[in-house]
C-alpha cells in the first residue's frame, strides 16, 4: 500500500546553521560506524507526527523509500528530504514545529556522537561521567534555564490510553498551566500529549507567553512515540537510561498517569532512586493520578509496589483519583518545598545534582533474551537494587512491544523468559496480564501478542 509522500528541501532556523565538514561527513557516512541510520529513523519518526502507528518496525517498513541527506552549502546546510510522510505538511509546506524537531534530531545526534559518546573526557563507566554527559546534552539543547524558579512538572503515562484518560490528563495539564507550571513529557501521544495540550490553554488564559513544553525521547522509542507538535523543546537522549535520568534531574516533580509496561518502568525507576538511603531527605513530589475509571489500574500498581518493594516505597508517592485541581495544588506545594530545599543548600534549580543515582540505573540495559533470562529478581538484595532489576524487566517488555530491534528479536527467538522469586513473579505476572486485559500494551484496535513469559 502506497502512502502519500512529499519531497522537500529545508534550511535550519536558529540552530545548526553551521556544521564542520567532519560533522557533515560523519552524518553522511552510511557505513556501520556512521550515524545515517539512526538519523534517518529519528527524522522519519518526527515527520510521522500525528499518525497512529506505535510500532517502530511497521513505520520503517511503511516508508522504505524515505531518504534524508545533508546538503552542504558555503553558507551552511540544508536538508534534502525524499519520500516524507505527507502528514507533516500543510498545503505543501512543512509544519513549523516539525521543522524545528527535525533540526533538534540533527543537533542531538551530531552533538551526542561527537562531543559525548566518542569523547574520552566523559567516563561512561562512572556515575559522575554519565550524569555529566546528561547535563551536557541538555545544556547543548538549551533546556537548562538558570534564571527560572522551579516549575517544571514531568508527566509520565501511556501512549495508548483511552479517551477518558486522555481527557483527564489534559484537564490536569490545564490546572497546572493555570498555576504557571511548565510541562515535560516523553513527547509522544496519549498521556504525553494531553498534559501539554491542557497546559497551553491554561498558559494562554494566564497570558503566559513563554510556556515550556519539553519533550525528552531516545532513538529506540521515538518511532513508536512520534513527538507531538506542541513540544517546543525536543531533546533526544542516547538511550532509555539517560532519558530517565534527564527527566528526574531536570524536572521538579512528577505526575504519573495510567499507562502500560513503559509507565511501570518509569515508576520503578523513580522509586528505586528515591529509596536509595542517600536520597531519603530530598523532597521530590510524586503523584499518581487518573479518572475514576482508572482507579483499578492504580490499585494494582499500588499492590504490586507493596508486594515487591514494600510499604517504605509506598510512602514516596500520593495517589489522587479524579481531582485535577488537587493534583495541580499538590504539585505546586511540592515544588515550593523543592525550591526552599535547593535554596537552603545553594543548589541549582535547573538541574538536580543532589540526587544520588546508582550505576544500576545508569548503565544501558540491552534487552536480549539472555539478559532478560538472567535478571536478578529476588528479595535477597537492597530494595533500590530490586527496583533497578524490576525496571529492566519492564524495559525488556517495552522493547519487545514497540522497538524495531526488540520486535525483530522476538520474531526470531520467541518470547522473553523472565525468572525470579515466586513472591515477585506472581504479582508481576498479574500486573502484566491486567495491562493486556485493559488494552494498555497497544494502541486501540490492535491485537496484542505478548512478547514475554513469566516463569515462577
UniProtKB/TrEMBL annotation:
GO cellular component: cytosol
Keywords on record: Glycosidase, Hydrolase
Domain of life: Bacteria
Pyrimidine/purine nucleotide 5'-monophosphate nucleosidase C-terminal domain residues: 335-455
GO-annotated molecular function: AMP nucleosidase activity
InterPro entries reported in the protein's UniProt record: LOG_fam, LOG_family_nucleotidases, PpnN, PpnN_C, PpnN_N
E.C. no: 3.2.2.4
Pyrimidine/purine nucleotide 5'-monophosphate nucleosidase N-terminal domain segment(s): 9-115
Reaction(s) this enzyme catalyzes, per UniProt: AMP + H2O = D-ribose 5-phosphate + adenine
PANTHER family from the UniProt entry: CYTOKININ RIBOSIDE 5'-MONOPHOSPHATE PHOSPHORIBOHYDROLASE (PTHR43393), PYRIMIDINE_PURINE NUCLEOTIDE 5'-MONOPHOSPHATE NUCLEOSIDASE (PTHR43393:SF1)
Annotated protein name in UniProt: AMP nucleosidase
Organism name: Duganella violaceipulchra
Amino acid at each position: 500500500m502506497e502512502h502519500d509522500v512529499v519531497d522537500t528541501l529545508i534550511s535550519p532556523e536558529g540552530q545548526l546553521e553551521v556544521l564542520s565538514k567532519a560533522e557533515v561527513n560523519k552524518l553522511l557516512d552510511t557505513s556501520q560506524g556512521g550515524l545515517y541510520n539512526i538519523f534517518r529513523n529519528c527524522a522519519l519518526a518526527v515527520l510521522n507526527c500525528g499518525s497512529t502507528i506505535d510500532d517502530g518496525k511497521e513505520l520503517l517498513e511503511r516508508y522504505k523509500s524515505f531518504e534524508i541527506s545533508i546538503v552542504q552549502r558555503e553558507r551552511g546546510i540544508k536538508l534534502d528530504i525524499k519520500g516524507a510522510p505527507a502528514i507533516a505538511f500543510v498545503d505543501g509546506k512543512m509544519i513549523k514545529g516539525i521543522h524545528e524537531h527535525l533540526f533538534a534530531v540533527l543537533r542531538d545526534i551530531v552533538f551526542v556522537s561527537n562531543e559525548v559518546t566518542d569523547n574520552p573526557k566523559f567516563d561512561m563507566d562512572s556515575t559522575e561521567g554519565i550524569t555529566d554527559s546528561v547535563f551536557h546534552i541538555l545544556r547543548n539543547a538549551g533546556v537548562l534555564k538558570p534564571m527560572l524558579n522551579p516549575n517544571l512538572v514531568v508527566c509520565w503515562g501511556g501512549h495508548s490510553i483511552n479517551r477518558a484518560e486522555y481527557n483527564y490528563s489534559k484537564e490536569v495539564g490545564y490546572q497546572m498551566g493555570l498555576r504557571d507550571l511548565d510541562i515535560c513529557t516523553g513527547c509522544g501521544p496519549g498521556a504525553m500529549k494531553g498534559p501539554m495540550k491542557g497546559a497551553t490553554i491554561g498558559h494562554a488564559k494566564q497570558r503566559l507567553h513563554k510556556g515550556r513544553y519539553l519533550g525528552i525521547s531516545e532513538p529506540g522509542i521515538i518511532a513508536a512515540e512520534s513527538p507531538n507538535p506542541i513540544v517546543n523543546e525536543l531533546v533526544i537522549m542516547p538511550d532509555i537510561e539517560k532519558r530517565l535520568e534527564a527527566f528526574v534531574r531536570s524536572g521538579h516533580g512528577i505526575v504519573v498517569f495510567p499507562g502500560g509496561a513503559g509507565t511501570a518502568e518509569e515508576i520503578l525507576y523513580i522509586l528505586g532512586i528515591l529509596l536509595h538511603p542517600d536520597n531519603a531527605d530530598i523532597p521530590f513530589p510524586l503523584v499518581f493520578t487518573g479518572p475514576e475509571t482508572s482507579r483499578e489500574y492504580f490499585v494494582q500498581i499500588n499492590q504490586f509496589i507493596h508486594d515487591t518493594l514494600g510499604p517504605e516505597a509506598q510512602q514516596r508517592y500520593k495517589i489522587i483519583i479524579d481531582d485535577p485541581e488537587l493534583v495541580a495544588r499538590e504539585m505546586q506545594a511540592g515544588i515550593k518545598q523543592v525550591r526552599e530545599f535547593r535554596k537552603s543548600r545553594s543548589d541549582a534549580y535547573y538541574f538536580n545534582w543532589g540526587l544520588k543515582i546508582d550505576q544500576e540505573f545508569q548503565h544501558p540495559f540491552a534487552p536480549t533474551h539472555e539478559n532478560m533470562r538472567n535478571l536478578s529478581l529476588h528479595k535477597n538484595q537492597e530494595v533500590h537494587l530490586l527496583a533497578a532489576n524490576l525496571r529492566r524487566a519492564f524495559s525488556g517488555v517495552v522493547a519487545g512491544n514497540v522497538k524495531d530491534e526488540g520486535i525483530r528479536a522476538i520474531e526470531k527467538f520467541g518470547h522473553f523468559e523472565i525468572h525470579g522469586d515466586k513472591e515477585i513473579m506472581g504479582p508481576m505476572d498479574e500486573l502484566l496480564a491486567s495491562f493486556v486485559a485493559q488494552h494498555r500494551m497497544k494502541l486501540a484496535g490492535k491485537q496484542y501478542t505478548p512478547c514475554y513469559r513469566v516463569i515462577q
